[in-house]
Design brief:
By secondary structure, the chain is an all-alpha fold. The chain is built from nine helices and no strands. The chain starts with a helix and ends with a helix.
Length: about 260
């Protein structure tokens, strides 16, 4: 059952990844993700259904448009494969738990937000704000069907608290953090709070740790300085991925090692 679930989620991830390519390109530009259909950026010919099969379509076309031979970036199949991997890993982590759909949604929207932030250095409200009601609804369904309402209360507290922490940091040092990070923090706090306060703490601090390590690396290789603008959203999201996978274990190990 586990192998079937993981494979099924990976296949769904490929399809979702194809859609995320549209989201990542159009949402920052204020365009509809529904219409018009995807087209070649060179000749603007709509992509045929047989060429729009995730990964396979790109391989069959050898990374070129069928009509005008314009190069198609490998970014597209890479996003599809990344989504499939994230969905498979999420399925392995949660199995058939009722909370699985909630974390699959996080995997999808999180990847889209990370890519947009890397490209445009912003986190669009069109993705972050709807994630609040979506997360709350999916976690509530999981709590009702899984009889784990304690986790739901903790998730709500975790979301509010992480939002408050980031809001305070943004207020104290607005040059170092955008308000988009604050709005994303509340969403991530919901998901890490559901898993436990240990996972919540790892999700909070690991983003700053990873961002700090990256900043130091930039300075060491002379690719940036202390004032170099670096999008923080991807570090927040990678930190939360770490928290989801092993956060509670890391927190327990730390507490045992320190005797707290």
């Amino acid at each position: 059952m586990t192998a079937t679930l993981v494979l099924g989620c990976a296949l769904v991830g490929l399809l979702i990844g194809s859609f995320l390519n549209v989201v990542v390109w159009r949402v920052p530009r204020g365009e509809s993700v529904v219409s018009p259909p995807s087209a070649c950026p060179g000749c603007e010919t709509p992509i045929r259904p047989r060429d729009n099969v995730p990964v396979a379509g790109w391989l069959m076309l050898k990374g070129r448009c069928r009509d005008c031979d314009t190069r198609i970036s490998p970014h597209y199949p890479a996003v599809e494969l990344a989504t499939a991997v994230l969905f498979a890993v999420t399925a392995l982590r949660f199995g058939l738990d009722p909370v699985l759909p909630a974390y699959l949604y996080l995997a999808a929207v999180g990847l889209a937000l990370a890519l947009i932030d890397l490209d445009c250095k912003r986190l669009p409200d069109a993705l972050t704000l709807p994630s609040y009601p979506v997360a709350i609804v999916l976690l509530t369904i999981a709590a009702v069907t899984g009889s784990d309402s304690g986790s739901l209360v903790r998730a709500l507290l975790g979301g509010a608290t992480m939002y408050a922490v980031y809001f305070a940091l943004c207020f104290a040092y607005p040059a170092g953090m955008g308000f988009g990070d604050v709005k994303l923090a509340g969403v991530l706090g919901l998901y890490t709070g559901w898993l436990g306060w240990g996972a919540w703490a790892v999700g909070l601090f690991s983003g700053f740790f990873l961002g700090g390590v990256f900043g130091i690396a930039l300075i060491m290789v002379k690719k940036g300085g202390r004032k170099t603008a670096v999008p923080f959203g991807p570090f927040m999201l990678v930190g939360v991925l770490l928290a989801i996978l092993v956060g509670q274990d890391l927190a327990d190990a730390y507490l045992n090692a320190t005797g707290i």
